[in-house]
């Protein structure tokens, strides 16, 4: 497990960046025809949503 210590401003900036990227990622998933690539993007989305959830919990 990796631990990163962030001050509140850093955590908020990271969260905002991830949320913005997730929005773009959702559109990319919807526009992707190749099944393997879509599955990889969905896995990435789930991981990033988990990180955003952890940032919300702090």
Give the topology.
Blueprint: H1 8-31, H2 35-57
Helix pairs in contact: 1-2
How would you describe this protein?
The protein is mostly helical. The chain has a domain at about 30-58. It has two helices and no strands. The chain has helices at about 10-30, 35-55. Helix 1 (about 10-30) runs antiparallel to helix 2 (about 35-55). The protein starts with 7 loop residues before the first helix and ends with a helix. About 0% of the residues are buried.
Nearest-integer average pLDDT: 95
Instruction: Tell me what portion of residues adopts beta-strand conformation.
Output: under 5%
Rounded to an integer, what's the Rg over CA atoms?
13 Å
Shape estimate: elongated
* N-to-C span: 17 Å
Catalogue the unreliable spans. none
Give the tags.
single chain, 2 helices, mainly alpha, 81% helix
Short description:
The protein is mainly alpha-helical.
């Amino acid at each position: 497990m990796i631990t990163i210590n962030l001050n509140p401003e850093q955590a908020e900036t990271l969260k905002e960046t991830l949320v913005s990227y997730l929005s773009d990622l959702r559109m990319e998933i919807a526009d992707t025809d190749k099944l393997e690539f879509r599955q990889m993007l969905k896995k990435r989305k789930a991981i990033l949503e988990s990180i955003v959830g952890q940032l919300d919990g702090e």
